[in-house]
Amino acid sequence: MATKWWKPAPDFLGRHHWMKFWAVAIPLALCNHFFLANLWVMQYPGILLMDGVDAATPKPTAQHTVLVTITPDEYRTEFGRISPLKPDRLGTAVRNLLKLSPKLLAVDLDTSDERFRTLAREFRNSGVIWARGLTREAGATVPGGFLGNPSDENALAGIAAFKRDPDWSLRKLDACIKVGDATMRTFHRAIFVAAEKVSGPVCEMYRIPLTPYRFQTLTLTEAENAHANLSNKIVILGGTYDDRDIHPTRGGSEVYGVEIVGSAVESQYAAADEPGWKAKVERWAEWPVEFALGAAIFAIYAYGKRISGTVKLALSLLLCAFILFVPGVLLYRYGVWLANPFPMVFGMMLHGMYEAAED
After folding, report:
1. Minimal CA–CA distance to 214: which of 267, 160, 259?
2. Which residue(s) pair with 255 in the sheet?
3. Is the peptide bond before 84 cis (omega within 30 degrees of 0)?
4. From CA 117, how far away is CA 171, in angstroms rounded?
5. 141 forms bridges with which residues in the sheet?
6. How far is CA 347 from CA 46, 339, 342, in A?
7. Averaged pLDDT for residues 101-130
8. pLDDT at 227
9. CA 71 centroid distance within chain
10. Structure pTM?
11. E strands within 49-196?
12. Is 207 left (phi over 0), alpha (psi -120 to 50) or beta?
């Protein structure tokens, strides 16, 4: 008679063991899910996998945004390598870009210096969205000004700052950020809100995945000499002359801040276009997948009779790769991180309790 591959289970869920089993299993499962699986060091291998997928995936083409960049040569010839930029020359650039009739013009340049007050009367209520930074005053972080004036929350400006992951890469973007006791909209959120005339609360605390886009890009000289009609495009004016404005993103690519802002705007359009059920996928997707994998790993270890320990481990890792990483590639863009150690830990925990009950 042939030897069976699987052995029957003992009565470890019977009346003598089920209360002890669930009393231990449920708290450990919750601890694993909400603590261990959310540790950055545990998520990082899965995040790197997603970075690799992004690096191998062609960038989508931006549909709503055009970039106008001040190049290193233009920084030298047009602005005399002076930073912050010459206010009069920047004012001329903004006027010329407004002649192209963009849907919205946003300026991703530092205008906090008091010299830019000469532009405030002309442009403060022109509909142009201005970037503002963060500064330190009396040991506290406070919002910087724009057009030469300090200011509180203003619909015509947003904080040009990003929250980085521990490895210093940008993978997700905040719609708003905390500055002291205040919650303020980010620059890319201010652009999207103004362009789409978003009603209701415009400063919401949520994060969206950053997808790098491929843009139609014009130099400042090209844009000022162009005769195009950009009435259906958001135009973002920024610089590519300062290496301090280069930021690492997912997939290992490094891009200038103006490209980050453009990608952030496009990502908001993509998020707004998703059906409602996709926005809610993170609420239900993680638990059933993780527990199903944990149960499968437990079954391999507990019931495999003629399977060696090495093969059991290999099968468990393959299950992790298939059930976690493959759906993870599809779901990570909606904020769901499935690549974590919880299923492996939970499955082996079940197996340890199984063996204790069997003995």
Report:
1. 259
2. 247
3. yes
4. 35
5. 136
6. 19, 15, 8
7. 90
8. 74
9. 27
10. 0.73
11. 61-70, 104-107, 129-132, 134-137, 140-143, 157-159, 172-174, 176-179, 182-185
12. beta
